[in-house]
Amino acid sequence: RIIHLADYRPTDFVLERVDLTFELDPEATKVEARLIFHRREGTDPAAPLVLDGDELTLSGLLFDQMEMARERYTATPDTLVVRDLPESSPFELTITTVINPQANSQLMGLYRSSGIYCTQCEAEGFRRITYFPDRPDVLAPYTVTIIADKAANPLLLSNGNYLGGGNFDEGRHFAAWFDPHPKPAYLFALVAGDLGVVEDKFTTMSGREVALKIYVEHGKEPRAAYAMDALKRSMKWDEEVFGREYDLDIFMIVAVSDFNMGAMENKGLNVFNDKYVLADPETATDADYANIEAIIAHEYFHNWTGNRITCRDWFQLCLKEGLTVFRDHEFSADQRSRPVKRIAEVRHLRSEQFPEDAGPLAHPVRPDKYREINNFYTTTVYEKGSEVTRMIATILGRDLFKKGMDLYFERHDGEAATVEDFVRCFEAASGRDLGQFSLWYNQAGTPHVSVAAAYDAAGKTLTLEIGQTVPPTPGQADKKPMHIPLDLALVLEDGTIAAPTSVEGAEMTGSVLHLKEARHKVIFTGIPSRPALSLNRSFSAPVVVRYDQKPADLALIARHETDLFSRWQAITDLALPALKDAARAARKGEAIQIDVTFADALLAVAADPALEPAFRAQALTLPSEADIARELGGDNDPDAIHAGREAVLTAIARTGAETFGSLYDTMTPDGGYSPDAASAGRRALRNAALLYRTIAADTPALAAEAFAKADNMTDLAQALTVLAHRFPEAPETHAALAAFEARFAENALVIDKWFQIQATIPGDGALARVMRLKGNRHFNENNPNRVRSLVGAFVFSNPTGFNRADGAGYRFLSEEILRIDAKNPQLAARLLTSMRSWRQLEPARAELARTALVRVEREVLSNDVRDIVDRTLKG
Ligand code: ARG
Ligand code: ZN
């Protein structure tokens, strides 16, 4: 069944209040839902009330406290239909269901794992708890009473403020919670069990005191300190930058170890994958710290963008996700280094979202149809959605963007809104027409912007011919031209930026050119000499720019641009031709020749003490094999791409030997470990140097020494990665892997790193290694983090291993999908998206990939996987 945006209509009944009582039991939890409804004015007085369910059985139904006549309702596992309801007066339904949290392996709805009861209701999990109008435009205040065995569940949590609790018969106790803020069911949460807590408090800008609590497994409290610090910084930042204050007496976070996603913004009670809460220097990398900070912020920011203002329907998912990702990006940029953060965002967008947008699973930021909404929690909705918000900020400028956001909060607080509502606020605040701009929400595919430049020395004019095209995507053959805000600079030979006396052919505000037509001829006058063109500065638009840039111009930009993102981009663009040529040569079986002149700019940046180390480390990190595959654009042979990239790395390692030696010696920590961004940058630069030095020396000695000396997880994991990926069979590697496993055997999150490092060892041996690791005592096929760290890492992050020429990797994936699907369809569907670029493979591999997909299509059971496999094969 396909759901269409165009079919949206409001419910026939308005939900006034929700009162839930849970009697928790591992296998038979009784849920009593008292719901007060009235018929919406103007709707058919005979219309029945239709509630959603999912694998439910009804065990009782009362109408205004009286047994409901059997002929007035029909219950199936997925609906409850109630007829003959009052024309206008409110009425109360009391629905009783009995559910089995222990048997809930989908991890949607109420489930129990490691002795903890917890819920995940977004998008449509609440209907696995009770029959309900389970859609985001049905908002109500909730009262929740939880009754449970006190010894096993001293902690009973739900949304809102704590009302009270007490003891009950037979060793049981209860707690009651009231959430005054009307919310849709997807924001409901319940947690019960025995957990440790870290407590703190925050005083809001209006002087209210909020209790902060982070619940973790007993003994792990010290590892929640960084998350707590990040939470307080997030609360402060949202007040200062967006004027948003927290609105309950308490804010709680619970870390659980079995979780399908990263985290969930349930009102006042965020539930997190513990991977994004727990950290200490011994067990967490710098990347883990940065992720924790970003995700804590993301979920906290949802309190306003998502909860206070929610989505009318799931088509509007980007309204909360794209906006909230934009907010967490801005937060991290303010807390850390803005340019380095921007580079990381763009790398992520290009490696994850661009392939999605160019393949069979492409969809608009706001889709107009879906078969399974869980499959639309994508990088397109999240990250491209964030870029679209960022473009609004770029087009309007900081002050008008702020004015538009203020208006959005003012107009829509307490509502379930749409993308149109959001855009209208910026139009009203700025007086600008964002009609054409809104195509970004509706047209899928990454726009291509092509540029040709001609400089006329006599007239001192620069003429740019700029064209844009948006490639066809499934269901969208023809595209209209988009409003693309292209930030650019004309960099003169002396490194200064030219200030044109006039610009014709397109509107320009500040340094941003507004492309709105399929072609523009833009003339800049008063340009004293031929400039180098720095295009799409700070990545002002999520587009692919095609411009035949001269290496000398790129080197000039790499040296002088004031926009650091563009300097990094220029270095990347200098390296790309070498990477592509090397891959092509390897594909033809020719000897790989590398002209290393491109490396000069890269090494100059790496050695420049005026630049921050984190930025220099980014410059040393070449485009990934997936990035190169995308640049090659089809008929791809992952082995050739790998061989080509290795040859380029080796050339850089040799040319820059001196630089890497001195970086390795000087970028040492001063004092003990600190997770701050500056220290992390030094470690990143030193670890990049370790990699290049190891490549040049071609022995495991240096990495083995680094492994032995590491006093933090960042250095330890990097040393282990270099050892395992470069010398998988060396005795040093076997010893290091064994030592790591023994040392961290009790820490599941660190063991995940151990699986992941081994699952991503390149080459034909990877599959056998992964199969062997599946038998390791630490592997647990019911834990999503474990599955992602082994199977997920192999299929997403091991291009040569997964794309083995004999197709064994694809066959392995199809078997894994079918087995995982039987337990956890969401996890299986997510893993299968690793096949999204199968058509870009060379014909023999593509055919083997197709065969594996066809097998999944034939045997699959869940709607989740069926949706992905059908689209992957068809598109
Ligand atoms: N809203 C959550 C977040 O982004 C993620 C929920 C994911 N849900 C899903 N069904 N995949 O913070
Ligand atoms: Zn989110």
Automatic annotation (TrEMBL):
Its EC number(s): 3.4.11.2
Boundaries of every Peptidase M1 alanyl aminopeptidase Ig-like fold domain copy: 445-548
An individual GO BP term: proteolysis
Pfam families for the chain: DUF3458, DUF3458_C, Peptidase_M1, Peptidase_M1_N
Keyword Flavoprotein tagged: no
Domain spans labelled Aminopeptidase N-like N-terminal: 20-187
Swiss-Prot/TrEMBL keywords: Aminopeptidase, Hydrolase, Metal-binding, Metalloprotease, Protease, Zinc
Domain Peptidase M1 membrane alanine aminopeptidase, first and last residues per copy: 226-437
Residue ranges annotated for the Peptidase M1 alanyl aminopeptidase C-terminal domain, each copy included: 552-874
Organism: Ciceribacter ferrooxidans
Cofactor or coenzyme needed: Zn(2+)
Protein name: Aminopeptidase N
InterPro entries to which the protein is assigned, alphabetical: Aminopeptidase_N-like_N, Aminopeptidase_N-like_N_sf, PepN_Ig-like_sf, Peptidase_M1, Peptidase_M1_dom, Peptidase_M1_pepN, Peptidase_M1_pepN_C, Peptidase_M1_pepN_C_sf
GO molecular function, one term: zinc ion binding
Family that this chain belongs to: Belongs to the peptidase M1 family.
Catalytic activity: Release of an N-terminal amino acid, Xaa-|-Yaa- from a peptide, amide or arylamide. Xaa is preferably Ala, but may be most amino acids including Pro (slow action). When a terminal hydrophobic residue is followed by a prolyl residue, the two may be released as an intact Xaa-Pro dipeptide
